[in-house]
Write a structure and sequence with these properties.
By secondary structure, the chain is an alpha/beta fold. It contains 19 helices and 15 strands. The N and C termini lie far apart (83 Å).
Length: 549
């Protein structure tokens, strides 16, 4: 009993120390974190009325942080992780109702689609209505153009519009933009829609409305109703005969927008506040149950399908977590729901760094041992602040210091050494994110190789077509294999991959390294997709309709 009694006594003393620390002005989170890292640290914080810091140096802390963040992805670590991730992708081709979701879109553009198309992009804060001109892939540099686009802010008041009132507001904005382009009211106006909210698609241009979240009340009384019919009904009140022909999400739109320009585009990647990847895979790669209810005619016409991976939901039990990742997960309202999202996306990178900074303040005396009050609040360290700090490469880090003190003022002024340490932490976190994203792309690229090879093997052999009895090769299969061996384009969009300093070249470098060690031939290139939501919706519409608007 003596060891147990001693342990309980130690715990009581430590918790009392944490409480005293809390009463001295430190946040309970700081006190508890410091106890978890080093219970003895509390004995050293005050001596003769003066604060005394633990003996650990910031250099020691950063050395450990580098090992924790980057050690698991060095050497063969990233390749091993990508193999584990590919296994998870494979498993969920046949199971799990919330990821690896085959869409209704099985057509990639030929590059020959031409005409003017009406495209809508409905996001969390903006409605955009555009007329898009598609000129064909041979019009190099001018393949597609947004001829006219008007953006409308979705204010908090508009978010509160209930039921049809929101769709009526949308229809009125559509009318404002295009009514002069419609000579006769009875003319059917095909439309493509990039919809940034959950929808249960029932066809390429139809889907059942699900909860929108983000403060929207539009679904009140309309849950389960067809999105296309709601928009059609609202537009009819404006004298517009609109027909929704194609619905796409952001990652699918990104893929389609660049597939129109680059024929070898097979991926659409989003990395901003959140993350996702769309990929084209063979229909045969999935169990039939994953397709839900869809007409047999769809399967007769589709050989491949654009897949919404919901990438952020992968990674459970295989990701190399640090103690700061575990703190983030423990405080998340849905722990383990999106493990990979937590380590990739802009919404979480700053929070991981905040936890590391709190520990460094407590154990090394970073920032004078005083955490800025603003950083006591969860998610108070914006990834954009880290981006600005990493972007300052000057010896003085003057811009980084100014940006830090502006956003997180404190009675103890940050020094050059403080900002240098914070910048170093930020580089560890962003580099790890870029490496894990590269592994995600690489794993899906290998999976595509494997599933294509399986499809070819399962394809019935053609009968001999000459007197010698020799089976002539199938041109379509030969072309598909040749395409696989060439360069594959990954269209990307999003604030982190577009604007975070050195993120894009770092990610591409990791991809190149992984591909160079793969058994499969070819290369994988990241290419930007500007205005991908609008252009992708227009391309999806062009693929679905033989004639232009």
């Amino acid at each position: 009993m003596q060891p147990l009694t001693s342990a309980m006594t130690t715990l009581r003393k430590s918790l009392l120390a944490a409480l005293k620390s809390f009463l001295r002005g430190r946040s309970f989170l700081q006190a508890l974190l410091a106890f978890w890292i080093s219970p003895n640290a509390f004995k050293e914080h005050h001596a003769n009325g003066k604060r005394v810091y633990p003996s650990r140096t910031i250099e020691d802390f950063l050395e450990e942080a580098e090992k924790l963040f980057l050690g698991p992805i060095d050497g063969d670590g990233l390749k091993r992780y990508s193999s584990d991730l590919k296994r998870q992708f494979r498993e969920r081709l046949h199971s799990h109702p919330e990821c690896m979701l085959p869409s209704f879109n099985h057509l990639l553009p030929t590059g020959k689609e031409r005409g003017s198309y009406l495209a809508l992009d409905v996001g969390g804060s903006t409605l955009r209505v555009a007329l898009v001109e598609l000129r064909g892939r041979e019009a190099t540099g001018k393949e597609s153009e947004i001829v006219r686009m008007v953006s409308f802010k979705i204010t908090p008041e508009i978010k509160k519009l209930e039921g049809m009132s929101f769709f009526d507001w949308m229809a009125a904005r559509i009318y404002e933009v295009i009514h002069k382009d419609v000579p006769r009211q009875e003319d059917i106006i095909p439309m493509g829609l990039a919809w940034s909210f959950p929808v249960e698609q029932t066809s390429l241009g139809g889907g059942l409305l699900l909860g929108m979240g983000k403060g929207f009340l539009a679904t009140n009384g309309l849950l389960g109703q067809d999105l296309g019919e709601l928009i059609k009904f609202a537009c009819k009140k404006q004298g517009l005969n609109v027909q929704l022909e194609a619905i796409v999400n952001d990652s699918s739109a990104t893929l389609l927008s660049q597939a129109y320009v680059h024929a070898s585009t097979r991926f659409g990647l989003i990395l901003g506040t959140g993350t996702n990847i769309a990929v084209q895979l063979p229909v045969s790669a999935f169990s039939r149950a994953k397709y839900g209810k869809r007409p047999e005619s769809w399967f007769e016409s589709a050989t491949h399908v654009i897949v919404n991976t919901e990438l952020g939901m992968f990674g459970k039990d295989i990701l190399p977590l640090t103690r700061w990742d575990e703190l983030l997960n423990a405080g998340h309202p849905r722990p383990d729901f999106q493990p990979l999202e937590h380590m990739l996306s802009g919404f979480y990178l700053g929070e991981i760094c905040r936890f590391a900074i709190i520990e460094a303040v407590e154990t090394t005396g970073l920032l004078g041992g005083q955490l800025p009050p603003s950083l006591e609040k969860p998610y108070s360290l914006d990834t954009e602040v880290l981006s600005r700090i990493e972007g300052d490469t000057s010896p003085s880090l003057e811009a980084a210091l100014l940006h830090w003190t502006t956003h997180h003022p404190s009675t103890t002024h940050a020094t050059l050494a403080d900002i240098t340490a914070i910048r170093t932490l930020a580089t560890f976190i962003s580099r790890r994110s870029a490496a894990l994203l590269a592994a995600s792309v690489f794993s899906l690229w290998e999976l595509r190789h494997e599933t294509e090879a399986e499809r070819v093997l399962a394809t019935p052999k053609p009968t001999p077509s000459n007197d010698s009895g020799v089976v002539l090769p199938s041109p379509s299969v030969d072309e598909e294999i040749k395409d696989l061996e060439a360069s594959t384009k990954v269209a990307f969009n999003g604030s982190v991959i577009e604007h975070y300093p050195k993120y894009l070249p770092t990610c591409q470098s990791y991809i190149d390294d992984l591909v160079s060690r793969s058994q499969y031939p070819g290369s994988v290139d990241l290419v930007p997709a500007i205005e991908s939501s609008i252009l992708g919706a227009a391309v999806a519409l062009a693929c679905a309709t033989p004639a232009a608007v």
